[in-house]
Protein 1
Amino acid sequence: MNTIRPLVAGNWKMNGLSVGLEQAKLLANDLAGSQQYKCDVMLCPPATLLAQAHWQLKGTKVALGGQDCHSAVSGAHTGDISADMLKDAGAIAVIVGHSERRTNHKETDAQVSAKATAAHNAGLVAIICIGETLDERKGGKTLGVLTEQIKGSVPAGSTASNSVIAYEPIWAIGTGLTPTTAEVAEAHAHIRAELSKVMGSEGPATRILYGGSVKGSNAVELMGVANVNGALVGGASLKAEDFMGIIKAYA
Ligand code: 13P
């Protein structure tokens, strides 16, 4: 029995100019219809669009999140954005430790953990990303990698209300490849068990999202797997119609 309210979050990554917010408005209109979907919906546009999106989406069912934050509250960090700034712009959450940041910016588990703490301190939900590479999967190391990432990236003070875990196998991101449902079930069950070790009684109530090539055509299957409490969606979140195709898994 799964009583956790799922979350379907869209990560626009480095895509989207202000004209792209038309899609966010379309999404909000679709969600305002009579059909009630049994999930929360969030968009994480680039930081440049947050404030504008906030005003456009106020009062709708589309919540907003940032894609990354700095671990410090403020200071001499040119080009960086603090969790407080994201909150001020209208975000209620922030993705931390996305594999693209871990890879492109060499972010470590310790940095991801510090960012999650900064998010918590600012009153934001930290969406903490973990996931294995293809080599790690082929080498049978997936569960061990996930254990290490959880231990290192989920800070003390994490609760089911202030944290969401996103399991994103790196080889499934933007490739059209997805793990089998058995592989997803195994990874999510393992994450659930590890969360209980680091978060105690909050572990069983914490949302664990699956991310990596989620589309309308595979959403029902993936979202139906035990311990999958929603999705973190990249490419298919850019167009309202495609994103709705995933949200409809929760009709
Ligand atoms: P895709 O849905 O494009 O595979 O991206 C997944 C992702 O990285 C979401 O954060």
Protein 2
Amino acid sequence: MSFDIRKFGLLFSALFIFAATAQAQSAKEIQAALDAAYAKYRDLQEGANADYIPALAAVDSNIYGIALVTTNGKVYTAGDIASEVSIQSISKVFTLAKVMDEQGPEMVANTIGVDATGMRFNSIVSIEFSQKALGGPEMNSLVNPGAIATTSYVKGDTRDAIWNSILSYYSDFAGRPLSVNQEVFKSESDTNQRNQAIGYLMYAYGYIKSEPMRATDIYTEQCSVSVNAKDLAMMAGTLANAGKNPVSKKQVMNAENVPELLAVMATAGLYDDSGKWLYETGLPGKSGVGGGIIAVSPGKFGIAVISPRLDEAGNSVRAQKAIADISAALGGNPLAVKAR
Ligand code: GLU
């Protein structure tokens, strides 16, 4: 049998064209899923901006941006990806990631806990219920008491050193240098007496070892970091890609800690509707009162939507709907598998 190089070449080109088309089609499908969700919810006005932080009430409620970053580094967007909002509670995920990287995931599980509180994100009663003496810690780093304690564990000799290391860690996730919205930071600092009380109580119970007001202040600053939908999607995409930024290719987070981080997001990422969200989408996610939501389809993509109108639970109305639709269209639910 003779080897016909021309036939082989033809077969090879056909395969190549097939593969290239398949890839182009899937890029088209992804863009179509984003466009469809964008159009479907563009006119939805349900919900309202958070207003317990005065600067958030003033944010344009109509901002609506969608971004998706695949683990092979492709970026898709729809709508407004230029406007920035404050990251708010979504920051809690990345400070938790940092502490896991610095001190290991067991430390977080043993000191703060990795359980849902079943109470509001800024509940003071939840601190009482979570005391170690009562069989705790029954808390997690994505509610305010656990988040302020988590921030207090970030390593650094001075406030500046701690802050710079947090901000540069966030920036590596986003793949660009992020900065703080000073107006939001000031507005929240002037009105965060409840978080200060939480900080002191966490100190009184020994969760925070020292300087509770410094921890609360840094926590407030981390919540004021300014992001657009693409930044958030890149941060989520880095988590989807085992801690490696899929575009810059930098290994930002220790890959070994990502499953534990995603587990906490799945447990407590969307306030009191975390169970409902997981039931509907299967996606570890995190929302913030600034109007952003991130969600992670491990190994596939990270997605983010910004839209400031929130529902009663504090989750962006349009962001929840758009992410659920897009993930369903792309088979993003990690809990849904086909039989072999
Ligand atoms: N900085 C906000 C607070 O502490 C974050 C709340 C949130 O986004 O859930 O109240």
